[in-house]
Specification:
heterotrimer; A alpha/beta; B alpha/beta; C alpha/beta; A: alpha/beta; six-stranded mixed beta sheet; 38% helix; C: alpha/beta; Aldehyde Dehydrogenase, Chain A, domain 1; 42% helix
Chain lengths: 476, 319, 295
Amino acid sequence: MVFEYAPAPESRSVVDIAPSYGLFIDGEFTDAADGKVFKTVSPSTEEVLSEVAQAGAEDVDRAVKAARRAFEKWSALPGSERAKYLFRIARIIQERSRELAVLETLDNGKPIKETRDADLPLVAAHFFYYAGWADKLDHAGFGANPRPLGVAGQVIPWNFPLLMLAWKIAPALATGNTVVLKPAETTPLSALFFADICRQAGLPKGVVNILPGYGDTGAALVAHPDVNKVAFTGSTAVGKEIARTVAGTRKKLTLELGGKGANIVFDDAPIDQAVEGIVTGIFFNQGQVCCAGSRLLVQESIQDELLDSLKRRLSTLRLGDPLDKNTDIGAINSAEQLARITALAEQGEAEGAERWSPACELPASGYWFAPTLFTNVTQAHTIARDEIFGPVLSVLTFRTPDEAVAKANNTQYGLSAGIWTEKGSRILAVANKLRAGVIWSNTFNKFDPTSPFGGYKESGFGREGGRHGLEAYLDV
Amino acid sequence: MPTTAPTAHALSDVTASDSTLRRFLHGLPGVDAVGLEARAASLGTRSIKTTAKAYAIDLAISMVDLTTLEGADTPGKVRALGAKAVHPDPTDRTTPATAAVCVYPDMVAVAKEAVAGSGVKVASVATAFPAGRAALDVKLADVRDAVAAGADEIDMVIDRGAFLGGKYLKVYDEIVAVKEACGQSARLKVIFETGELSTYDNIRRASWLGMLAGADFIKTSTGKVAVNATPANTLLMLEAVRDFRAQTGVQVGVKPAGGIRTSKDAVKFLVLVNETAGEDWLDNHWFRFGASSLLNDLLMQRQKLATGRYSGPDYVTVD
Amino acid sequence: MSDARLSVFKTYKLYVGGKFPRSESGRVYEVTDSKGNWLANAPRSSRKDARDAVVAARKAFGGWSGATAYNRGQVLYRVAEMLEGRRDQFVREVADAEGLSKSKAAAVVDATVDRWVWYAGWTDKIAQVIGGANPVAGPFFNLSSPEPTGVVAVLAPQESSFLGLVSVLAPVIATGNTAVVIASEKSPLPALSLAEVLATSDVPGGVVNILSGRTAELAAPLAAHQDVNAIDLAGADEELAKELEIAAADNLKRVLRPQAVDYFEAPGTDRMTAFLETKTVWHPTGSLGASGSSY
C-alpha cells in the first residue's frame, strides 16, 4: 500500500499583502520620484502579488540624505539604546515569523518548510546576536571606541531575501551606521514588511531606508558619493562591477559572491548522513545558494554505492506547492533564473555529461526545475566550473585525498566546501588545505549568526556574522 | 555450536569466524550522530493530515504489538488484552485489529485462546527477558516452551554484555540457536536494547549481526530501560534492513518498542518507514510498534477523525 | 694609510625565487642620492620580471603558508639578526637614499630592525587574537582561523624606502603570504640590499621577491594578474591607486588602499588582517551515545 501524503498547505491568510507598496524613505512609504512601479509575482504560480515602487537615482539621493541626517543622532546614541531597538526588532520578527514565512514563500517560491524552519529563525537570531554587540564594541578586538562608517549602501539578492537583509542591517545598525538597502527586484516584499517592523519598533526615521528596484537602482546607490560603506551579496560579475565603481574612493567594501562548492565524500564516510548532506548541499533552496555543494567529489571506490543511495534518496524528494508543509523542492525564483539553469543543464548534456532526474511531475504554471544530477563530469565541463545556482549537481570522482583537494580548489571561487569522512585527522588535514571560507565537515549548509561567513578568491571578501562581521561596519 | 547461517546469501561467509565477523561489522559505514538525529527530526516535521492521517492511524493500529509484560499479569488481564487486540474499539467495528499481543511465555496459551480465529498473532518475550542473563539452555527452554504453547512470534533479547565485550560470534551463535528453537512456525524478533548498546555504530552493527543470524525482525528495546525506541535509532535500523535487502535479497522487519505513546509519534515513525525503507515495509508483516498505551491514543484520534469531536479516555477501553 | 684603493661597486640585482637575476629587459636606470649624485644603476624590471616573480611567489606559497607559525617566527627573527649585523651598511644606504644625517638614518635602521622583531613575534599569536571558537546554536564545534590570502603584490612606500618597506612587507609574510615587492622607484637600493639579507636568513626562495623599476609600469601587470590574490597600494599616488584598484577587480584582489602613515609609529594589526582570510570550519560534536546527552 502507498502512503500518500494529503495536501498540507500552510494558510495563506496569515499574511495580508497590499495591492501596492511605496519606497520606504525617512520613515515614510512614498512613491518613486518618477512614479515608476514594477510587479512582483509568485514564482510558483506566476500570480501577481503586488505592485511596488521602483526607486530611481533621485530616490536614491533622497534616501541617502535621510540616512545621513539620521546618522548623526543614531551613531551618538549609547550602544545600549541601539541594542534595545535591535532586540525589539528581533522580538517582533519572532512574533510575526509565521506571517513573514508565508510571505517569503509566496514571493520567493521556496518551500514553507525552509522559510519556517531556517530563514525566519535565523533572521531573528541574527538581530538578537548583533543587538548584544551594540554596547560591547569596545571589547570586539578593534581597539577602544571603534567608530561607525556612516551611511551604508546595501544590495541584497533574492535567494534569502529577509535573511540577507538581516545579515546586512543587523551589524550595520549595531555599530551605529544608518542604511539604505535595495532588495532584489523579484523579492521586494519581505524587506517592505521589515520597514513596517522598524516602524513598530519605533526605530528613528531615516535609520533604515528600503529602495526596491532593479540593477540600475543598486548601481546608483553604490555610486552615490555620500555612501561610506557598500555591502553586496550577489553574482561575481556584479561584484566586480561594484569593486570598479568604488575604486579610488574611501568607501569600505564587502562582497559576498558566487561559489562552486565541492562536497568531498571519502570512502570511509558515514554514507547515509553523507547522502543527506549532499541533498541538503545542492537542493536546499532549489540550489539557489551561493555556498551550495554543487560539485560532488566522490572517491572512485564508492562511487556506485553512493550514487545508488543518492538516486534512491532523490526519488523521495517532494516537489510542488511551496506552501505545502511537505514540499522539499519549491519553485525557481524567476523565469530568467529558470532559463539560465535550463541552458547550463543543456550545455552539460551537450558536453557529454550524463543527466539524471528522478521521476517528477512539474506543475503546469510557475517556474520549475526537477532535481538533476550529472555524472561523468570532469573539471573541464562548464557545469563543473560555472555557478548554476539551481538544483543541479555535478558528480566528479577522485582517487586520493590529494587529488580531491586539488580538484576542490581548482576553481576561481572559494566560498564553501564539505568533507565527509569518519577519520578525524583527515577532516582537519583536508579542511586545512581547502581554499574556502566556510567548510562543513560531516554536515552541510549550516548557518549561525555567531559564525563568520564569506569567501576566498572570486567569492568575495569580508565576513558576515560573528565578531568578524562587525569589522565591515567599523572604521578600523 | 555450529555457526552456519540459516540462509545462504552473499554475506554467508562473514560469519565464518569471530575475526571475519568482527572485520565485517567494524567495516560497516560509520554513523554520524548529529546527521542521523537531524534527518530523523526533519522527517518528524512532515505534516500528515486528513486522508493521509486516517490511513496512517489505521495502519499504525494494525501494526501494534499490544503488550503486557508485568509481574502482576494474570490470565484475566491477558484475556482482556486479547479481546482489545481483536476489537480495539468496540464502538466501531471498522477499526482494524492489532498485529499481535505480546506476553510472557507462561501466558501464551491464554493469549492464544483469547485471540483464536482473529488473525491476531501471539508474540512472546523469551530468553530470560528483559536482562537475558541466563544460561543458553535456560533461554532455549524458555523459547521452546513459548513455541510449544503456540507463540507465533518470539521476541528475544541479545546478550548485551557479550556484544559490548566484542564477543560478536557468541551473540550470533545465540541468535542462531534461538532461531532454530523457533522452528518453522515462529518468527523471531531480535531485541538489541539499543539504550544499552549506547552508540549508533553499535546499533548498526547489532542490526547486521541480527540479520546475518536470521532475525525476522530487529527490535529496538525491551521497554524496560531508560531510553527505548527513538526516531533516530529506528531510522538507523530501517536503513539497515533496506541495505540488507539490497545486498542479500532478504527482507527483515523492524519493531521500535517502548516510549511511543501518541498518535503523532506513531505517524512520525510511519513517515520514517515510508521515506527510508519504503512502502514494502508499510505492512504489519514488516513493521510493528511495541506499545501498550499507544493504542488508546490512536483510537481517540481515530474517533476524532470520524466524528470531528475530540474524544476522551472514557470513550476507549482501559485494557 | 692612503685611500688610493679603488672601492668595489656593487651591481644591484633583482631578487626573484631566491636568486639574483638581472632584469629580463636588460635595462637599468640611474639611482641618485637626494642631492642628485649617482649612486648606482638599478635594474629596471619589465612586466616579464613581474610575471616571473609571481610564478616564484606562487611556488613558494604552499611551503611558507604551510610552515608552522613558530618556524616563520624563527625565520623572521633571523632576518632581524642579519639586519643588525649589516647595520652600518643600511645606515649608509638609507642616509644616501633619503638624504638623512647619519644619526637620523641610524634611527630609521634601528626602528626597521625592531619592526622585524615585532612582526616575527606575531606569527604565532595572530590566529589566537583574531580567530577563535564560535558558540553556534547546535551540536557543532565551530572554529574560525585566519589563513594567508596567497600572493600579495606590495607597492613599497616611495619616501620611506627602508622602514616603510619593511613595515609593509613584514606583515604580509609574517602571516604566511608570499610577496612581490616593487621597491621605492626613486630609492630602490635599501630594498635591493634587503634581498641579500633575506637570501641569507633562511627565508625560502620566492617568499619575498623584489623588483626595482618604474612603479606604474610594474604595478599594472601585477594588479591585473589573475594569480595575484591581493595588492598593497602603499606606494601608489591617488591616480595610480584608482587605476590599479579597477584592474584588481578583475579577480577581486584584496586591495589595501594608500593611506598616510607615520612609519615610526607603532603599527596595529590591520596590515596583517588586510591579507588574511577567515576560514570557518564546522564539526558535529555528536553525542556520547544513542541514549546520551542529545536526548
